[in-house]
């Protein structure tokens, strides 16, 4: 699989997550972390050059807006404080590691209780 296809696959997966999130997140925290890791990879692939891939960036921004509307802030990084410090995750650039779906099940809730 080429990098271009891989990036497209990540964007499609993020769009799919965004589109279904308003109905609630049925899976656990590990699945959510997999979804948001994909979002981090998208950001890394695009880099800081805002002139690059404008259509791709618009699609990503639209999916991000849906995700932001269907999530709420979490007080800690979902990967835990030690990982946040080690990898430099911050609330601004890596916002997706600091939010949780507004509607989620008991498994997800139990997983959140274990984050330190």
- What fraction of the residues are assigned to beta strands by DSSP? 5-15%
Q: Round the mean pLDDT to the nearest integer and report it.
A: 92
Radius of gyration: 14 Å
Low-confidence stretches: none
**Number of domain modules:** 1
- Cα shape: globular
Give a written overview of the molecule:
The protein has helices at residues 3-21, 29-46, 54-69, 81-87, 106-113; strands at 71-73, 99-101. The protein has 116 residues and is mostly helical. It has one domain (3-113). A two-stranded antiparallel sheet has the order 1-2. It starts with a helix and ends with a helix.
Name some characteristics of this structure.
mainly alpha, 116 residues, 2 strands, two-stranded antiparallel sheet, 5 helices
């Amino acid at each position: 699989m080429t990098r271009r296809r891989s990036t497209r696959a990540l964007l499609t997966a993020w769009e799919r997550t965004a589109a279904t999130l308003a109905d609630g997140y049925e899976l656990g925290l590990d699945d959510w972390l997999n979804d948001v890791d994909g979002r981090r990879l998208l950001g890394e692939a695009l880099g800081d050059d805002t002139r690059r891939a404008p259509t791709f960036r618009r699609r990503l921004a639209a999916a991000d807006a849906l995700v932001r509307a269907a999530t709420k802030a979490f007080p800690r990084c979902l990967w835990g404080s030690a990982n946040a410090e080690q990898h430099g995750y911050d609330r601004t650039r890596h916002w997706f590691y600091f939010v949780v779906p507004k509607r989620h099940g008991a498994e997800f809730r139990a997983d959140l209780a274990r984050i330190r």
